[in-house]
Amino acid sequence: EPFVADEYIERLAWRTPGGGSRGGEAFDPKRLLEEFVNHIQELQVMDERIQRKVEKLEQQCQKEAKEFAKKVQELQKSNQVAFQHFQELDEHISYVATKVCHLGDQLEGVNTPRQRAVEAQKLMKYFNEFLDGELKSDVFTNSEKIKEAADIIQKLHLIAQELPFDRFSEVKSKIASKYHDLECQLIQEFTSAQRRGEISRMREVAAVLLHFKGYSHCVDVYIKQCQEGAFLRNDVFEDAAILCQRVNKQVGEVFSNPETVLAKLIQNIFEVKLQSYVKDQLEEHRKSDAEQYLKNLYDLYTRTTNLSSKLMEFNLGTDKQTFLSKLIKSIFISYLENYIEVEIGYLKSRSAMILQRYYDSKNHQKRSIGTGGIQDLKERIRQRTNLPLGPSIDTHGETFLSQEVVVNLLQETKQAFERCHRLSDPSDLPKNAFRIFSMLVEFLCTEHIDYALETGLAGIPSSDSKNANLYFLDVVHQANTIFHLFDKQFNDHLMPLISSSPKLSECLQKKKDIIEQMEVKLDMGIDRTLNCMIGQMKHILAAEQKKTDFKPEDENNVLIQYTNACVKVCSYVRKQVEKIRNSMDGKNVDTVLMELGVRFHRLIYEHLQQYSYSCMGGMLAICDVAEYRKCAKDFKIVLVLQLFDTLHALCNLLVVAPDNLKQVCSGEQLANLDKNILHSFVQLRVDYRSARLARHFS
């Protein structure tokens, strides 16, 4: 523990009798002083003893340091001597090594010609046996030495090719015959070893055959035997992947060029197995069933490219991507050349069938809309005047729009886009996708939606029809839903195919044109439908509103709160408002409701102008307008509510006392109105002719 002087003194005092530290003891300063003096003397003696010991150790340390330094110097000198000896030894070794290398070169220069001479002598000996026509050497007669025999016959075969034919034709044929026999034996040996699964023997035989012309035949035999029993299941693609995986592990142990052998195996699988399988699957339906043909083509091409992706992990040489692409192209080239024509033909017939089946289910004979000059003229007149041209058609509430039909058409087109993406050449992809999109526009937008709009427009009755059933809003509702589905497919499936091509702007423009064309007809139909609604309200008012409603015979016996005409009109309006809300979405709801509300207000305003009002009749008119205003609140349109608030204020002019007319007219709601409007309402009072009223209003 660290030394603390205060604690040390305290402990010393505590141990000393009379030191005053123990409880109950008398303090004895003399004794304590004496103890301190004695302790100081002991510490001084201890200090001197320790100091002497320190000095002795320092002297010993200095002595040992000198001895160590001397020893280090001696070791350095010894190290220098050893290094010099090492350099001398290294130089000597280098000199000896140079001499040895020179001697080795000289020996090799002498031995190589000697070995060649010996080899040549042996070959001459074997050649003589062929000249004599009798093979006596053990190397040719012993089947176990087939490897040595193959090496000799391969060299003799090369030599024989250099000899003149006229003099050595017989021996050349014998050597060639033996060459062929050995080659066949080696291939047979390789085949047997492969069947037995002896990889080492296969490797030895393949190494010998490498210098023979029949080496490629050996590879062919290997490839053929690899495929025996490999394609037993129905899934030829999975079988091919498993086979290549197994061969890839083995081929490196057998052949010196494994990537070439594996590439040849894959080429054989593609050009024989896969091509035959693809042809069988496609030719069966090519002319008889376009739908199944396209499905099979897409499925087979996809599975083939997936197989190609799996094979990319193997070593097939330098440019394996191009190699595999060419193999795939060789299989499908004849089918992909006219793919888009088959696709468009199928899509056209399939879409037409879907539509026709729908119209047949409705027992509807689709009428021709026409596109000639007269039809165009009618269309322009109708757009400018909003008049119904031609007889009205009773659709019996049928919209001739079907979500099921739309889903079927979109599903067919979605599958076509997927096939197009997979099967089209990258350079033709945008063009092909545009053709498919054009088919969708033709059958979904023109043949189905546009036809339904035309039929719906023709089915809208004239505005003066009684009890007309208005179904066009149902057409609007369904068309709106279909547009959302159409737009979703455009963004999800077409855009990725054309996003980086010039066809993008063309598709966007085509989509914009068709939507604008539909919107014009929707707007026209909605406008005529609103006219019909107003016409229905007119019929209700004409049938239910009586002149005596606002000028009763007995002013004191009026028991109703509002007229029967008001009740029926409000009920009708509320139903139509609800129908509009259910048929549209977004800002379209507010736009149409505001237009209906303005027309509704104009109708009630003009309707009220047709009657004269007594005091009690004016009160009833105010009650009617209050009910109309309550109905207007359902529109949730500020402008419409303001119009009915103003109309309600105008109706107050029918009952206000003559003395208060000017005050009411200058009120907040009526102050900004034209005086002629105010005057026209005051004129409706039965007491307007009285001099007093005319004087007050002038």
From TrEMBL:
Biological process annotations from GO: exocytosis; Golgi to plasma membrane transport
Exocyst complex component Sec10-like alpha-helical bundle domain location: 148-697
One GO location term (cellular component): exocyst
Stretches of the chain forming a coiled coil according to its record: 40-78
A family per Pfam: Sec10_N
Domain of life: Eukaryota
KW Transport (keyword) present: yes
The entry's keywords: Coiled coil, Exocytosis, Transport
InterPro entries: Sec10-like (IPR009976), Sec10_HB (IPR048627), Sec10_N (IPR048625)
Domain Exocyst complex component Sec10 N-terminal: 29-137
Leader peptide range in chain numbering: none
Tagged with keyword Transport: yes
PANTHER family assigned to the protein according to its UniProt record, in alphabetical order: EXOCYST COMPLEX COMPONENT 5, SEC10
UniProt similarity note: Belongs to the SEC10 family.
The name this protein goes by in its record: Exocyst complex component 5
Species of origin: Nyctibius grandis (Great potoo)
Gene from which this protein is expressed: Exoc5
